[in-house]
Amino acid sequence: MNRFFNWIRSLFNRTMDRLEDPEMMLDQARRDMEVSLVANRERAVQAITQKNRLQGMLEEAKKKSAQLESQAATALKTGNRELATQFMREKMNHDASVTTLQESYDAAVQTVEQVKIAMKRQEEEVRKKTAEALAMKAQWKQAQIQNSISKALDGLTFENQFEGFGAAQEKIREAQSEAAARQEMLGTSLQGKMLAMEDQARDMEAETELEKLEARLGMRQQTTSAPASTVSVGVGGAPSLDAANEAVAKSEAERELEELERRLKGA
Q1: CA dihedral defined by 22, 25, 30, 31, rounded to 10 degrees?
Q2: Which sequence spans correspond to the domains of the chain?
Q3: What is the per-residue DSSP string for 83-121?
Q4: Looking at the predicted structure, is the pLDDT value of residue 225 above 50?
Q5: Whole-number Å distance between alpha carbons of 163 and 171
Q6: Between 110 and 227, whose confidence is greater?
């Protein structure tokens, strides 16, 4: 039962929405104007018809009055004055009718002219309102299109997409900062120093090999004695890693010993 009432309610609301649709309202207003215009035209036709009837009655009364006057004149010419008097009395009655009909006809003519003016104005107003209705329909269509575009734009989510790029960029920056920090720590650590010493020894070895190559190519004279070097070399001329480690360890041990001596003297 509730579903039935809900269906009735939804149907009623849908019908009301359609009735309140601007296009339907404008079409209904246009139809009402056309119906009113047709009805007024019919009234104008009736008014003109009555005016024409009055005109015919007036012309007939005038014609009858002229005929009676002619008959009275004929009776006078024949010496029948009594008959002429009767004709004149009847003519006077018709003249009174002519006066009344003339007044009615003049009033009808004025009314018809006013009706014609009113009909012309109404027709112009109907044309004007029809053009306005067309313009309003176009405006309604444009408003609907703009609303559809606005609703479509409201559904776009550029911010969430760009947030992913920003988060990735921040992660990359953090990783770069961490890598730089680790590189800096590596340069000041014992292992970093050892690696630096190995790099220096390899550079010296490469320089020696380069000098030998230049001597073989005749680009320079080969030296008879190699310069003294404080770096010990291993097998194949490579610096000894144990010697480097021993030197570093000795330097660290000396610093620790000096620190211990200072603490003992202070005690």
Answers
A1: 150
A2: 2-153, 201-220+232-267
A3: HHHHHHHHHHHHHHHHHHHHHHHHHHHHHHHHHHHHHHH
A4: no
A5: 12
A6: 110
Predicted local distance difference test score (pLDDT) of residue 106: 92
Q: CB count, 10 Å around CB of 83?
A: 15
The helix/strand count (H/E) of the chain reads as: 6, 0
- Name the phi and psi angles at 79, rounded to 5: 85, 10
Q: Identify whether the C-beta of residue 190 lies closer than 8 Å to the C-beta of residue 172.
A: no
More confident residue, 159 or 208: 208
Do residues 231 and 199 make contact, with C-beta atoms less than 8 angstroms apart?
no
Which residue shows structure tokens 């109404």? 122
Q: Per the structure block, which two tokens stand in for 238?
A: 């490579």
Residue type, 116: K
| Residue 70: Cβ within 10 Å count | 12
Which residue is listed with tokens 């609907």?
Answer: 144
Which amino acid is located at 264 in the chain? L
Report the DSSP beta bridge partners of residue 239: 233
Distance of alpha carbon 255 from alpha carbon 143, whole angstroms: 85
233 beta partners: 239
CA neighbor of 134 nearest in space, from 250, 243, 26, 255: 26
What is the CATH code of the structural domain delimited by 2-153? 1.10.287
Half-sphere exposure of residue 101: CA atoms within 13 angstroms, side-chain side: 19
What's at 156, amino acid-wise?
Answer: L
Q: Which residues of 162-183 are buried (b: 16+ CB within 10 A; e: fewer)?
A: eeeeeeeeeeeeeeeeeeeeee
